[in-house]
Amino acid sequence: MTLLSQLRDVPARLRNEARQVPTRDIDETEVEVESTAHAAAGVTAVAVAMRRAIGQMGVRRTAATLPRLNQVGGFDCQGCAWPDPDAGHRHPAEFCENGAKAVAEEATRQLLDREFFATHSVEDLAGRTEFWLGKQGRLTEPMVLRPGATHYTPISWDDAHATIAGHLRRLDDPDQAIFYTSGKTSNEAAFVYQLFVRAFGTNNLPDCSNMCHESSGSALVDTIGIGKGSVSLEDIHQAKLLVVVGQNPGTNHPRMLSALEIAKQNGAKIISVNPLEEAGLVRFKNPQTPKGVAVGTALADLHLPVRLNGDMALFQAIGALLLEWDAIDRDFIDEYVTGFDAYAAHVAQLDWTKVEAATGLTREQITEAARMFADSPATITCWAMGITQHHNSVATIKEIVNVALMQGNIGKPGAGLCPVRGHSNVQGDRTMGIWERVPDHFLDAIRDEFGFDPPREHGHDTVDSIRALRDGKARVFFAMGGNFVAAAPDTEATEAAMRNAALTVHVSTKLNRSHVVHGGEALILPALGRSEKDMTGGRAQRVTVEDSMSAVHASRGPLDPPSEHLRSEVDIVCSMALATLGEDSPVPWADFRSDYTEIRRRIARVVPGCASYDEKVDQPGGFVLPHPPRDNRVFETESRRAVMTATPLEVLDVPRGRLLLQTLRSHDQFNTTIYGLDDRYRGVKGGRRVVFVNPEDVRELGFVDGDVIDLVSEWRDGSERVARSFRIVSYDQPRGCAAAYYPETNPLVPLDSTAEKSNTPVSKSVVVRLDRPGTDGGDGHGSPDQGTGSQRTDEPHHLA
Q1: Rounded CA gap, 395 and 388, in Å?
Q2: Which CATH class is domain 111-212+425-621?
Q3: What is the largest CA-CA distance in the chain?
Q4: Which is more confident, 172 or 779?
Q5: Residues 6+ apart with CB under 8 A from 365
Q6: Which of 194, 232, 304, 670 could form a disulfide with 433 if both were Cys (CB 3.0 to 4.6 A apart)?
Q7: Residue 769 contacts by C-beta under 8 Å, 6 or more apart in sequence?
Q8: Is 552 helix (H, G, I), strand (E, B) or coil?
Q9: 554 neighbors 544 (Cβ within 8 angstroms)
Q10: CA atoms within 13 A of residue 754's CA, in its CB half-sphere
Q11: Which tens digit of pLDDT belongs to each residue from 529-581?
Q12: Domain 654-799 belongs to what topology?
């Protein structure tokens, strides 16, 4: 039965409900809290996916898109970067609930035209929520906000490019321009984008990696010589132990659950390490099998409810026990590893009192996990933002690497390191040169290929870009996709920085917060979506992307664009380059714009590992980029060996009366895109301004479940940041920890609170207090005699 025929069988009630796409803003007083779920996916996920898809796209557009999603010859999901099975082994429905939501969000029939902007002033739009802005439909033509104007008005593409070129040419220095990239940009667009930026004369190329897996890249380059994960999808299937740390695959990478299910069927054990026990790792109800629909598959054999920022101590303790038991691969260590002796001496002195304080776990719990490591001949450790967004994230990831190296779990089947990327092509963008600190050999290749010498001085990352705009050192901000204002930390500081720019430009498919927090002049440039046909240059074009496991494949959209005024990202970049740099540029921008094959031929000669790039992409399912540690146990570090490190153990000590907050996603969102207002796995319905707190902490702080409070973060310089009107939801997690959704809680993350070495915003360990609305300072409940005490703090203490 075809998907179209299945959709015709969707009950009329469901179809009618689906057509009622909400466009009103959020009324947080209507939020409901129910019991948490103990299984993910299932029939409910199918129903929700179909309701959202049909409601926004209609039956025929749904049938034209979803069967081609993540298929050979189809198009790549706009959501996460989880890899696809090999060609010939893909299910007819190779997508998840949130993938269907991502497609529906982009391919919606709701259009946003010039009449909308004539009706709504920027001031009006600035008062709306991210949810409301995103539900207004697809952008259909370029828009400009002139200096002093109150409304966006239409502008031609030629005039838009001339406006950008004029601002760029008037800068005193190319470094006064910032060029941001989101993780959805294709490899072709990313390559020409970074090429234009460097031809213009700067390395200011911040991207969303700076806010997510920069810590992973920093740690992995130092330890194994390459900043990418070392496993394949087949390795996941073959692993005997899978450790999922600081990651919620049921919401953020739902197709990973299918891979975990296969691993379980092949005899694997799974450990979940996370402050919150998430439904997806409890049980997976695979809607594509009768057993999955009926009972599902229990996934995690052990759940460790680690305290926020306790992962470093956990992996040091596991390493110490493996060393004590001699459950290590001495042959691998002797041949491939340096630093083992110093590491072994360090963990031999491990202070278990500090370990228990840092992790919130008992020695028995940690020992049980370590036994599972010791018993496994092939282990993969997966992680995501729960690991990468702490002050000591790089050191923590190095501890994960230590354990893997000690057991020889790199370069063999079913074993390795797996940082799971959160956006569909964020890894590909970095491969293509979107990096403010790209190595010299990449710049040398650009010089040799195109005949100009790129700038060598490192550029600004995300946090430093905000500082540069704030301080007047940058005057132009250009964003290739994304929603920078909502995604960045310290919202008030970020918004002030953006308003300090002379020009802000956003290449987008839909309206978002960044369009209404603007510079003196602002442009919105509407781009083709990944689900749409690209006929740039009068020919059918394709683009390529790279997933979390270094596999590169082609993507071709099936839908007609919703407006004749949309341009591809490649077209937008090449046209901007021609307007700015002129026809005499050594780069053939016009040729690149008319035929993306020409771009891929240059990628083949510039980007390491991409020889015969266009030809390899023609292979069914694409090809896999080389990874020396995975492929040959070759480690391109200074010592030519993998590096083990000894790091002093830290205990994050949060003063009494405060909680340690992590920001996280609802099940009904992808990054800053809000699909809907329900987080059914955590039991929240109809709202987003909730904060999850341990029931004992709720009582001890003098509150009750359902109280509305303000969240106040405190920073070492004495400053405070406030996010108002959050409902307390009692939720099972370690004492002293709390969780709430972003971007609503991004205002609480200080701009200067960043991870050591990677400069990633510390969004997973924010010290906060709970204040009753109207309270001016104090200790949350307003009485020093209640709760956990009245001590005031400037910052958390790190006890070595």
Answers
A1: 10
A2: alpha beta
A3: 74
A4: 172
A5: 304
A6: 194
A7: 657, 658, 659, 712, 714, 779, 780
A8: strand
A9: yes
A10: 20
A11: 999 999 999 999 999 999 999 999 999 999 999 999 999 999 999 999 999 99
A12: Barwin-like endoglucanases (2.40.40)
